[in-house]
Amino acid sequence: MLIQHKQDGHKGIYYIEEDGNVLAEIIYSSADNDQLLIIEHTEVYDELRGTNVGYELVHKLVEQARMHGQKIAPVCPFAKAIIDKKPDFQDILSE
Q1: pTM (whole model) above 0.90
Q2: Among residues 68, 78, 65, 75, which one has the least CA distance to residue 89?
Q3: Distances (CA, A) of 52 to 1, 24, 57
Q4: What is the pLDDT of residues 29-40, one digit of tens each?
Q5: Which residues, in sequence order, are bridge partners of residue 27?
Q6: I need a labelling partner for 94 at 20 to 30 A (CA). Which of 7, 39, 63, 87 fits?
Q7: Which residues contact 50 (CB under 8 A, 6 or more apart)?
Q8: What are the distances in angstroms from CA 29 to CA 17, 21, 26, 49, 52?
Q9: Residue 78: how many CB atoms within 10 A of its CB?
Q10: Which CATH number, 1.10.10.10, 2.60.40.10, 3.40.630.30, 3.40.50.1970, labels domain 4-92?
């Protein structure tokens, strides 16, 4: 499954698309001179539920944050739960 990325200014999305339909997405915005990524929403549609795709989307955003020296503020309850459960994701949490 290919995770794609789009960014437009301070808004971004990682998503999985099939036949022109978005099947999973994580939406974020950046703040503090792009040093903070705010996870606003994560959604996995029925076709991909139970396939660990939600985790993969959060992981992709964590990788981006690490690569660019950014921190993450997970406003989305799903993303927050994933990050809270993973000890190796704690370094990217904003204070």
Answers
A1: yes
A2: 65
A3: 11, 11, 9
A4: 999 888 999 999
A5: 13, 41
A6: 7
A7: none
A8: 20, 22, 10, 24, 23
A9: 18
A10: 3.40.630.30
